Amino acid sequence: MLKRRIIPIQLLIDGRLVKTVQFGSYRDVGDPVASSRVYSSQNADELIFLNIQRESRSVQGLVDLLDRVTESVFMPLSLGGGVASIADARLLIRHGADKVVVNSAAYRDCALLESVADEFGAQALIVGIDARREGPDGYTLYSDCGRQREDVTLEAHIERVTRAGAGELMITSIDNDGMMQGYDLELIRRAVACSGVPVIGSGGAGHYMHLRDAFLDGGAMALACGSLFNFGDSNPIRAKAFLANYGIPFKTI
After folding, report:
1. Cβ distance 100 to 89 under 8 Å?
2. Mean pLDDT of 175-180
3. Of 40, 171, 177, 205, which one's alpha carbon is 20 to 30 angstroms from that of 23?
4. Are 189 and 173 contacting, i.e. CB atoms less than 8 angstroms apart?
5. Average pLDDT score over residue span 90-110
6. In Å, how far are 3, 49, 162, 244 from 236, measured between CA atoms?
7. With bands split at pLDDT 50, 70 and 90, how would you rate the model's confidence at 2?
8. Model pLDDT for residues 115-148, shown as the tens digit of each residue
9. Confidence grade of residue 253 (pLDDT, cut at 50, 70, 90)
10. How many CB atoms lie within 10 A of CB 16?
């Protein structure tokens, strides 16, 4: 039976850890290096870092963070936000990233996805997809931190990026981001139904039942959690203990 994963997601602006609400307003929630150490001790399966700097976004800040995080954290690390070339991907992986997350560039440069998958393997490439519930198709996709509307359907985009080499998809509901009212299960189900690669659900976790629903009803193979762990006393150890009661399997660390 395939193991599920709980993945804390850390959003970064000016090197600080922040939490957004529907990709808009945000609040500072701490130091990403310190929080990474905590997650490492709490049985997190992986960590995802996304640079959501609105202007002049590049991977250099992620490189600086990687150099500090990898000194004391030993778990798979995925980084994205500003990955626009194979050189960016090489730089992150050379500094300790296990995977890179490509979002905006995936709409315009499938050759980039092919290059990353060819050089590092499909398992090293996550394509991020951000969606709002709107439009005749039910969902509209957005890039550039939710600011640029993309004229492609969810299914067509998934088909294109997986054909180009994406080994995993991270599907984020912009509407549910930071609301702590649950994942968009329909969005996750639609992504799972048309994808032959694992889907990470993202956006909306507020308590452990939301995780259960996204795993069992949504079909996600992994779940990214931000607010759930940033606010209150929830953590990956407690989440896995709760979910084990429903027969959801996790790897033993």
Report:
1. yes
2. 97
3. 40
4. no
5. 97
6. 15, 17, 29, 12
7. confident
8. 999 999 999 999 999 999 998 889 999 999 999 9
9. low
10. 13
Contacts of 73-76 with CB under 8 Å at 24 or more apart are 73/36, 73/37, 73/39, 73/40, 73/47, 74/40, 75/39, 75/40, 75/44, 75/45, 75/46, 75/47, 76/45, 76/46, 76/47
What the block records as the tokens of 242 is 């709760």
Q: What DSSP letter does each residue of the chain carry, written as one string?
A: -PPBEEEEEEEEETTEEEEESTTS-EEEEE-HHHHHHHHHHTT-S-EEEEE--SSS--SHHHHHHHHHHTTT--S-EEEESS--SHHHHHHHHHTT-SEEEE-GGGGT-HHHHHHHHHHH-GGGEEEEEEEES-STTS-EEEETTTTEEE-S-HHHHHHHHHHHT-SEEEEEETTTTTT-S---HHHHHHHHHT-SS-EEEES---SHHHHHHHHHTT--SEEEESHHHHSSS--HHHHHHHHHTTT--B---
Percent of the chain at pLDDT above 90? Answer: 92
| Terminal-residue alpha carbon distance, the chain | 17
Bigger pLDDT: 128 or 251? 128
pLDDT value at 112 more than 90: yes
Average pLDDT over residues 173-194: 98
Provide the whole-model pTM: 0.96
Domains of the chain: 5-244 (3.20.20.70)
